Amino acid sequence: MQRLPASRTHRFSVGEKKLSLTRTHLFVTISSSSEAISDNISLNRKISRKNIMNKSEETTLKKKYVPHLPSILATCENNYACALKLLPDCDSEDLSYEFKISEQLKYNIKILDSARYTSTIMMSQVANNTPSFLRPSMEIRLYHDAKVAEVLSCQRVSKLQPSYEYPNLNMHMRNEKQMVNVFLAEWLHFCLEQREMQISTSS
Known about the structure:
By secondary structure, the protein is an alpha+beta fold.
């Protein structure tokens, strides 16, 4: 029985190792590729979801605000009723009412003009040590036939629109007009609580 040369046995052993290493390398490469593909798929899904959410938010922002007329009308009717309680004589022009909250703060309501069906008043907040241009004020129209009060201008901003696209150059809220009428309601209710302090003067 003849033995194989040692060199041939050595080559055969090295070949097996090379084959084994090649298979291992191929398995690792395939596994790494699979993991990379899986990661890419997950990343693409996250990006797709984010894009869909961003588009949804953009659509919501661009969607035009539609005023809820019943709630706006209810606020204006309530403001009219409160204004009449504060102004027993709203037919007299150049008449003003003062509601003193403290030594530093008071509210002033002045009747600008009065007609058969409408009256226009100016309501302002007066605080000591505050420049006049920083004092909040509102011009309000009372409609006696419809029994509603509407804010014509607020903080020197007039011609308020029923709705605004957002964002806008002046950074008005979408329901800016409704919110200033709600703000007026808060002022009127606050002054009603201070009615005992009112002072009427004729200028």
